[in-house]
Amino acid sequence: MAPLMNGPTFSDQPSENVILKKNASKEHEIIMLGPIKLEVLEDGRSTDNRVSIVKIYLPPRLPGPVQHWHQMHDETFLVIKGTATFYSRDSKFEAGEGDLVVVPPLSPHTFGNESDGDVVMLNTFTPAFYINYFRLMAEMMKKVASDGKITPGIASRAMLQYATIPVPPDHDWNNAEQNPGKEPKNFQ
User: Fold this and answer.
1) For residues 43 and 24, what is the distance between their CA atoms, to the nearest angstrom?
2) 166-173 contacts, C-beta under 8 A, 24 or more apart
3) How far is CA 73 from the centre of its chain?
4) Which of 30, 34, 108 minimizes the C-alpha distance to 75?
5) Which of 39, 68, 161, 181 is the least crowded, having the fewest Cβ atoms under 10 Å away?
6) What is the CATH number of domain 22-178?
7) Which of left, alpha, beta for 135 (phi over 0: left; psi -120 to 50: alpha)?
8) What's the whole-model pTM score?
């Protein structure tokens, strides 16, 4: 075992073989969150929970989740079809096919599809535990939401269980007390 730059200790011997997951969509877990479809490509089982990958399908004119930040994980979004709209704090930008959006921990963000076409993105979570947030949301929607829609209450309860802090709509980005690292106040 050799230490890596004063970090974790890793073996200097190879272990598992490379894993090829053929284009076998029918074998992938599908998570439905209202009109949003998530195709789970890797849930962390093959990566010792270091990374999970989903393919997100957003129909046209779909607003995204409330703006939020993650306390414990990184996210990336690679747009593979269409144009997604992202918000970070009070900035708005569009990401088109081939664009990569990187979201480090404590970076406020949200995304949606403001276009008339479909959007498809590859979304990664590092570490992989956050995939379970989507599973929890789907379960909560089945039990609580009679109309199959994600309510702010369902979303915020699920977010808080996965170290994700929702930002209230009236959030003041100029108020240091309400910026990342502090839980926002007045969120219902």
Assistant:
1) 15
2) 166/66, 166/67, 166/68, 167/66, 167/67, 167/68, 167/69, 167/108, 168/66, 169/66, 171/67, 173/89, 173/90
3) 9
4) 108
5) 181
6) 2.60.120.10
7) alpha
8) 0.81
| DSSP β-bridge partners for residue 14 | none
CB 86 within 8 A of CB 93: yes
181's torsion region: left (phi>0), alpha (psi -120 to 50) or beta?
left
Helix (H) / strand (E) element for 121: namely strand 119-126
Q: Where are the domains of the chain?
A: 22-178
Distances (CA, A) of 129 to 72, 73, 74, 162: 10, 9, 11, 8
Angle between helices 152-161 and 131-144 (to 10 degrees): 140
Structure tokens at 49: 């929970």
- Tokens describing residue 110: 């949200």
